[in-house]
Q: What sequence folds into this?
């Protein structure tokens, strides 16, 4: 049975829905561990998550179909492309733990005509605003779209490195492994804007380096970023990684501009970021690293970007209306919730997730959310998963 066939059987067993995936030989690092007689810890957590969701939304045919479709999407993905649909399932499972205090809906399609002054409407978006989840609180709705917190630098380079390793094996007869030093503090905007266009150039220069048996090769991008590639002619690779949570926050401070299409004008808009070590090796979860990084990144997004009057289009290609400023986007974002998924290593379901909740004191559309108004909705035996909760009341300067 292929990994895809196993996934199709899994979907039918849990949801009683038939989902067919065309490429029966596709695989990736998410579905491969699911296909075995003795499931590993990640597989057990993955399957248990689906069973919880099937039980939680039993009777909601549309929702169960959407969930099953996301599982199907995971199977269709190549490389780290599974991170997106997987992250939606993680977020849905996390919020479901607290849904005794609020109703939860998944998927939400909002007519854009009802949100005429929203960022997506001003940017020329038509028909609908598609948002993954809505937390229906007692007096308010919180709409949150879910994103995977993956390493954009590694996503771009993985495809190139895989192609070079295949070239080396099948053309040169050499088994090599290639790694890259220090990606964590590289500027997100620079990498996203330029590196993707240089993949072919990197490929050719790396194949030449492998042909000449080089062990260290440096590539300088057109924007001046220098990447140090380490090449090992064996089955192990060691790269140099120097991590600073503050340097990473500086590098990623414009990241949330990319999500302006998910921001509403009359309802609270929150972005949920899901991190799993299998699709993000940048955050190291050592000591308080992730907490410091997430808090610093949220603070820069809410407070530093609030002071920037430059065009958002200068930092993100998603904007066509140059009247939309960086500060406009920042002020329309009510909060950011980071969720660390520990499925590969955690056997205790009650500690499967670590969440970090940050609220924007400069949110402009309604009264800004605060710890006091929100924390009561996350009070039960699973609340210990929330590791940090801050509304920056004393940091807004």
A:
């Amino acid at each position: 049975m292929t990994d895809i066939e196993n996934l199709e059987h899994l979907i039918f067993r849990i949801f009683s829905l038939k989902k067919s995936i065309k490429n029966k030989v596709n695989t990736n690092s998410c579905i491969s561990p699911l296909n075995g007689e003795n499931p590993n810890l990640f597989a057990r957590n993955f399957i248990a998550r689906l069973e919880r969701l099937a039980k939680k939304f039993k009777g909601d045919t549309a929702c169960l179909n959407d969930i099953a479709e996301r599982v199907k999407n995971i199977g269709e993905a190549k490389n780290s492309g599974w991170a997106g649909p997987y992250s939606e399932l993680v977020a849905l499972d996390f919020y479901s733990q607290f849904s005794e205090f609020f109703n939860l809906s998944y998927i939400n399609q909002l007519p854009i005509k009802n949100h005429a002054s929203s960022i997506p409407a001003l940017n020329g978006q038509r028909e609908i605003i598609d948002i993954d989840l809505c937390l229906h609180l007692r007096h308010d709705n919180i709409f949150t779209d879910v994103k995977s917190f993956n390493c954009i630098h590694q996503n771009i380079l993985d495809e190139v490195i895989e192609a070079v390793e295949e070239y080396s094996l099948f053309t040169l007869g050499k088994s090599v492994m290639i790694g890259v030093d220090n990606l964590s503090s590289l500027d997100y905007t620079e990498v996203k804007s330029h590196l993707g266009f240089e993949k072919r150039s990197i490929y050719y220069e790396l194949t030449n380096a492998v042909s000449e048996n080089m062990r260290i090769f440096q590539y300088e991008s057109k924007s001046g970023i220098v990447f140090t590639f380490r090449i090992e002619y064996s089955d192990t690779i060691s790269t140099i990684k120097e991590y600073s949570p503050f340097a990473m926050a500086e590098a990623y401070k414009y990241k949330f501009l990319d999500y302006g299409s998910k921001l509403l004008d009359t309802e609270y808009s929150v972005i949920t970021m899901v991190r799993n070590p299998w699709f993000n090796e940048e955050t190291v979860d050592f000591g308080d690293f992730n907490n410091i990084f997430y808090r610093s990144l949220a603070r820069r997004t809410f407070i530093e970007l609030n002071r920037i009057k430059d065009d958002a289009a200068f930092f993100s290609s998603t904007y066509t209306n140059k009247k939309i400023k960086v500060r406009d986007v920042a002020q329309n974002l009510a909060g950011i919730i980071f969720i660390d998924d520990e499925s590969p290593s955690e056997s205790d379901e009650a500690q499967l997730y670590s969440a970090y909740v940050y609220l924007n004191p400069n949110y402009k559309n309604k009264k800004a959310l605060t710890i006091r108004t929100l924390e009561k909705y996350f009070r039960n035996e699973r609340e210990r998963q929330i590791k940090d909760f801050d509304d920056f009341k004393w940091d807004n300067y």
Remarks:
- The mean pLDDT is 91.
